[in-house]
């Protein structure tokens, strides 16, 4: 029973961070919620093995890797990424300063969507989440040099796609 409570505490404290990672990887609010739920449900059966002997080191990395595997697996299903809407609004619902920030955020998400799943995951984990090259390599199951290569190619693609907008990203 204590493992279940410990898992619940872990899930409650890490769900927000896992959601942020999932959203940056997939770009869809609902899909990110689903990915976090699937990742946590996949983590639960292994919880006893992971926490045997009272160890808790590596749980965050294991959860991120589980989330990453769920994301890549979902992308392999090749489902449509179109979201149907009934009607488009006549005008934006944001003020001028908020509108430029929202526009920039949408441009970044759209640019990230052009990357392959592994490339997008590498960029999100390394640059948006701030993990080390070694942590990203461990999560992706590849070498540090492979992560450097993925990031190099991905950043070149993002620079090309974002054009002048990329400079606005560095100002905050």
UniProtKB/TrEMBL annotation:
GO molecular function, a single term: sigma factor activity
Superkingdom per UniProt: Bacteria
InterPro entries: RNA_pol_sigma-70-like, RNA_pol_sigma-70_dom, RNA_pol_sigma-E_actinobac, RNA_pol_sigma70_r2, RNA_pol_sigma70_r4_t2, RNA_pol_sigma_r2, RNA_pol_sigma_r3/r4-like, WH-like_DNA-bd_sf
UniProt keyword annotations, A-Z: DNA-binding, Sigma factor, Transcription, Transcription regulation
Residues annotated as transmembrane: none
Residue stretches making up the RNA polymerase sigma factor 70 region 4 type domain: 106-158
Pfam family of the protein (one): Sigma70_r2
Family the UniProt entry places it in: Belongs to the sigma-70 factor family. ECF subfamily.
Protein name per UniProt: RNA polymerase sigma-70 factor (Sigma-E family)
Organism: Kitasatospora cineracea
Lineage of source species: Bacteria, Bacillati, Actinomycetota, Actinomycetes, Kitasatosporales
């Amino acid at each position: 029973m204590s493992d279940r409570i410990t898992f619940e505490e872990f899930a409650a404290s890490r769900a927000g961070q896992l959601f942020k990672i999932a959203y940056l990887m997939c770009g869809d609010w609902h899909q990110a919620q689903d990915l976090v739920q699937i990742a946590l449900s996949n983590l639960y059966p292994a919880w006893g093995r992971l926490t045997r002997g009272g160890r808790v080191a590596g749980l965050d990395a294991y959860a991120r890797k589980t989330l990453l595997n769920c994301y890549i697996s979902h992308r392999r299903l090749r489902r449509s990424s179109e979201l149907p809407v009934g009607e488009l609004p006549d005008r934006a619902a944001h003020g001028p300063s908020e509108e430029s920030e929202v526009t920039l955020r949408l441009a970044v998400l759209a640019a990230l969507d052009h990357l392959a799943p592994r490339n997008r995951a590498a960029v999100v984990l390394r640059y948006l989440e701030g993990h080390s090259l070694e942590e990203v390599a461990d999560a992706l199951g590849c070498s540090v040099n492979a992560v450097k290569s993925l990031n190099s190619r991905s950043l070149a693609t993002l620079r090309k796609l974002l054009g002048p907008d990329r400079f606005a990203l560095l100002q905050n």
